[in-house]
Amino acid sequence: MPLTPFQAPAAPAPSAPRPPGLPEALLRFRRQLDEPAWCGGPAGLVLRLQAPQDGLDLQLAAGQLVLVTGLPGSGKSHLLRQLQQHALADGWRHDLQHLGPPGSGPDGLRSWRRLLHQARGADRQQAAQQALRALQAVGLGPLVLQRAWRLAPEHRYLAALALALARPAPALLLDEPLAGQPPSAAAGLRLLVRHALRHSGSTLVLATRQPAAWLDLADRVLLLEGGAVTCDAPVPLPRSQQQPVLALLRQRLLLRLKQAGLDLHIQS
Known about the structure:
By secondary structure, the protein is α/β, with parallel strands linked by helices. The protein contains six helices and nine strands; from the N terminus they run H-E-E-E-H-E-E-H-H-E-H-E-E-E-H. Strand 1 (46-51) and strand 2 (56-61) form a beta hairpin.
């Protein structure tokens, strides 16, 4: 589903009335807490992700995608939590966002904010445009003026995913982003991941039981079995559908993943 040009809502949302009894200093402090903190990272960011207990030490350049795949219970979510705890951005203040599966923890949305104004960025107008395009890509365009607390849980989670990819942090950990999503939303999420890699230069680590859906975007694939990495395969660049080496590597990867019992019916 292509991203459509930004169209401003027909009528601007009225300003929320000032809550009675709150002093201006407290209101100003609340507004500061609600300000987006990230305005973009430096070019050439190298992220070091470590999971000492699992023997992993990954050096990832900006714009790379690592797939962490395996059957349920293989340790994917545990590995992402380990990576989050031991992430180090070389030469720059660490800024990493981790979005787990539904119900696993906070999704990062501001409950009192409209979806249109949830996206990160110093330029609020640009952030709103990116938020609208991302929400439209996953079929949530009609809800852009809804406040997060009004959303059904499944819509709130999908909105959090889309907004995390609208203006992604330099490093983003995603846990099963396609789980339970309808095909139209899954296609939109793939498009947003592609955009985050190619245009935002973010480093993504994505845990999934559907590796074949992401192989055309991946730079590296980690297969987990019984809590251990049993396959660590880099994917050569450039990513080209016609590149014979990549086609051969994909064939070998798919065979190895199939041997591990993964469902490969979604082909890249």
